Amino acid sequence: MNYEESIEFIHSTYKFGSKLGLENITRLTELLGNPQDSYKIIHVAGTNGKGSTSNMIHDVLMASGYKTGLFISPFLEEFTERIQVNKHHIDKESLAKITSLVKEKIAVMLEEGYNHPTEFEVVTAIGFKYFQEQNIDFLVLEVGMGGRFDATNVVKDTLVSVITSISFDHMEYLGDTLEKIAFEKAGIIKENSSVIIYPQAENVVKTISDVAEGKNSNVYVVNIKDIEKTRGNLTGQWFNYLKKDVFSLSETKMNFLGEHQLYNVLTALRALEIVKTSGYNVTEESIKEGLFTCRFAGRFEILRENPVIVLDGGHNINGIEYFSKAVKENFKENKITLFFGMLKDKNPEDVLPFIIPLCKKVYTLTPNNPRAMKSEDLASLIREHYEVEVAPLNSYEDTLPILNAAKKEDCIAFVGSLYMIGDIRTLLKNNGFIENK
């Protein structure tokens, strides 16, 4: 099996859908020798902020001298982004070799009477095996969906669990209240362990805390008073970490914009405190280095200035709300030109009040996904409620002449489905719109 054949096999398992449960992944990892038991794991669940928080933790551990794996989903531009070690994506030869091995073990499972693993279960198994072969020290493991029955939760032991911001998403699987969703996310907490909780609604924190206490685990709720933003510009923001009992940080820079990213870095720092107090060498210098170099494509990512072009994968109401706050903070009274595309099941009508009032003109796009809302339908929805000028575009390429005609003082934003943001990022990169990336 070569790389192309391995990708084809992985994507062919999409037809087996999304099935929450651990029976299949447990058997598959057993047949692979339980590779997930070979390294220390920081497990990260939540609705928003998982990727940013995971990347921050990963980059600090790497700067601390540890060989560190990162498992994320979905990918933005290349499939190999999902499985990384020290910022290097899994190589195509390893992916093909391990996929062949996983396919052989799936054949054994089917003979034993198990169902065929889903696509996410297959990718999770491939990642675990690759990380074992790479002999990593730590794995920062991002949950795919939910937590309790997510394939990543086959891991038996974690150094620390992290629960980021929770909002409404995947309700058909996780429940129709924040408490139900929080309960599912809290399913990653292990017995006699530690959990870090992003600062959020009391009912969410209580639900997670109750699960943790039932497992005799320590609960650490992040306190927003522990961070102070000192300054910021389009390259990032500087902050003081006011909690001094474990780390004594001087003013520190990160490349992420938006108030929510201050809370994400707080969450990451609290998780790193657990790593430090567990006997691992994480220093103030490695924190500064890791955060200074850490980037996460597609999350309020400034591609260039004059004109400003920003990409943001805010694909649900919580993500769009974060985006709108970041626009107000960084662009002040400047109205933006918005390129917007969402999936139908993400309730586009609910996010419009957060984003449309910030716009002087809107162009709608159709994400490359069967669940996408058509650009014409999204434009009609916006016109129904707002007087802003709206124009549906037929293809991503239609954005290029608009960008070429933009004025230096313009603020342009591509926002919505990550399926769209990844394709747009590739298009803009190939056409010279990304500076110094």
From TrEMBL:
Positions of the Mur ligase central domain: 44-271
For the keyword ATP-binding, the answer is: yes
Cofactor(s) the protein needs: Mg(2+)
- EC numbers listed for it are 6.3.2.17
- Top enzyme class: ligase
Instruction: Offer an example of a GO molecular function term for this protein.
Output: ATP binding
Q: Which residue intervals define the domain Mur ligase C-terminal in the entry?
A: 298-417
Keywords, alphabetical: ATP-binding, Ligase, Magnesium, Metal-binding, Nucleotide-binding
Q: What is this enzyme's catalytic activity, as reactions?
A: (6S)-5,6,7,8-tetrahydrofolyl-(gamma-L-Glu)(n) + L-glutamate + ATP = (6S)-5,6,7,8-tetrahydrofolyl-(gamma-L-Glu)(n+1) + ADP + phosphate + H(+)
GO (cellular component) term, any one? cytoplasm
Instruction: Please state which protein family the record places this protein in.
Output: Belongs to the folylpolyglutamate synthase family.
Q: Which PANTHER family match?
A: DIHYDROFOLATE SYNTHETASE-RELATED (PTHR11136:SF0), FOLYLPOLYGLUTAMATE SYNTHASE-RELATED (PTHR11136)
Name by which UniProt lists this protein: tetrahydrofolate synthase
Question: What organism is recorded for this protein?
Answer: Sedimentibacter saalensis
